[in-house]
């Protein structure tokens, strides 16, 4: 009698950093994360300008009166060369971003074989951005091994249930105060706690990290002097920018050797707690550079922010955001592709 051959059992060769399979439908909620005065309100307020000038045909639409009023009010403020007021109370803002994304449907019927599939298809992406004042993110020790957050809903709980995170870092504040890490590690540790991150796994979010205020001379001239500038052919104003592929390297270089900055701990924490292929860096400006009407960027007259005699900062020319729509488009494209954050 022949003894049946036992099939070998498959060996689990999943790499340590492999992502767990999850069939949960994708969520469409994005949280904004950053220190006090990191530019959160201005970033959000420039969304209409950014989407109206976007090359990917992105459109923003408010889904409630508060969200539409926020855009109308702050767009008018910026169009009148003023900056919107800083966030004091938390405001729930719900919008739809309508964009074009790579076609995720590669399946064809026999009748469709002779017709090429469109490369890009329209996609409506609902987002719920909760703009919280920066103080809500700061970790405040209340006793041994205990950290509390601002009043209201725990900001770490809110960020934990988001599918994507938009993290803003103000380079001017980081160079002078260097407290980005104090607004970062508390919510990060709480998220890891509430989501019970297992050994070998990471938090599941997509994270777009934006270094703001690229138009400021301290940031722009550093990028110029060290050869980081690039240009987009579709930008009629020919504004300089930093390519996303160079953004992380530029960020580290910008803060290198600054005694006040712990930005290396922020990047190390991101790599430790999130999947590296779900993190992307951008160098952003909510107002862009000063450009004369019908002309192009000039290095001898590029400052778009000026200070009046009474100390108020104002916007000199047109608002031309740099890398404001792009991080949101990237987050939307990643989620539209069907990946579970």
Question: Can you offer a commentary on this structure?
Answer:
The chain is α/β, with parallel strands linked by helices and 341 residues long. The protein has one domain: P-loop containing nucleotide triphosphate hydrolases (Rossmann fold). It contains ten helices and 13 strands. The strands form five sheets. It has a four-stranded parallel sheet with strand order 1-7-8-11. Strand 12 (305-307) and strand 13 (313-315) form a beta hairpin. The longest helix has 15 residues, at 65-79. The radius of gyration is 22 Å and the shape is globular. The termini are far apart. Residues 5-16, 19-26 and 131-153 have low confidence and may be disordered.
Give the gist of this structure:
The chain has 341 residues and is α/β, with parallel strands linked by helices. The protein is built from ten helices and 13 strands.
What is the chain-wise order of helices and strands? EHHEHEEEEHEHHEHEEHHEEEH
Helix/strand-derived category reads: alpha/beta
Tell me which CATH architecture applies here: 3-Layer(aba) Sandwich
Overall outline = globular
């Amino acid at each position: 009698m022949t003894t049946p051959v036992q099939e070998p059992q498959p060996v689990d060769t999943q790499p340590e950093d492999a992502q767990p399979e999850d069939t949960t439908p994708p969520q469409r909620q994005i949280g904004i994360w950053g220190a006090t005065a990191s530019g959160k309100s201005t970033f959000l307020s420039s969304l209409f300008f950014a989407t109206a000038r976007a090359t990917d045909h992105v459109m923003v639409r408010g889904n409630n009166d508060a969200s539409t009023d926020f855009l109308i009010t702050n767009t008018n403020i910026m169009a009148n060369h003023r900056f919107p007021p800083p966030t004091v109370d938390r405001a729930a803002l719900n919008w739809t971003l309508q964009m074009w994304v790579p076609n995720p449907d590669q399946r064809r019927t026999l009748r469709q074989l002779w017709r090429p599939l469109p490369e890009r298809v329209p996609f409506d992406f609902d987002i719920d951005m909760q703009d919280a004042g920066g103080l809500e993110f700061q970790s405040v020790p209340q006793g041994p091994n205990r950290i509390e957050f601002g009043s209201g809903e725990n900001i770490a709980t809110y960020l934990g249930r988001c599918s994507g995170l938009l993290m803003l870092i103000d380079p001017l504040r980081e160079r002078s105060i260097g407290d980005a890490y104090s607004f970062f590690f508390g919510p990060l540790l709480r998220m890891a706690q509430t989501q019970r991150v297992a050994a070998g796994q990471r938090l599941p979010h997509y994270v777009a990290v934006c270094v703001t205020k690229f138009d400021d001379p301290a940031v722009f001239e550093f990028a110029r002097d060290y050869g980081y500038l690039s240009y987009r052919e579709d930008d009629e104003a020919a504004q300089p920018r930093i390519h996303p592929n160079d953004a992380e390297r530029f960020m580290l270089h910008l803060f290198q050797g600054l005694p006040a900055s712990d930005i290396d701990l922020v990047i190390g924490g991101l790599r430790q707690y999130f999947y590296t292929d779900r993190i992307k860096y951008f160098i952003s400006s909510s107002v862009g550079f000063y450009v004369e009407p019908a002309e192009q960027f000039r290095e001898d007259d590029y400052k778009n922010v000026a200070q009046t005699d009474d100390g108020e900062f104002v916007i000199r020319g047109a608002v031309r955001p740099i890398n404001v729509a792009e991080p949101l488009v990237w987050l939307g494209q990643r989620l539209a592709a069907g990946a579970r954050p």
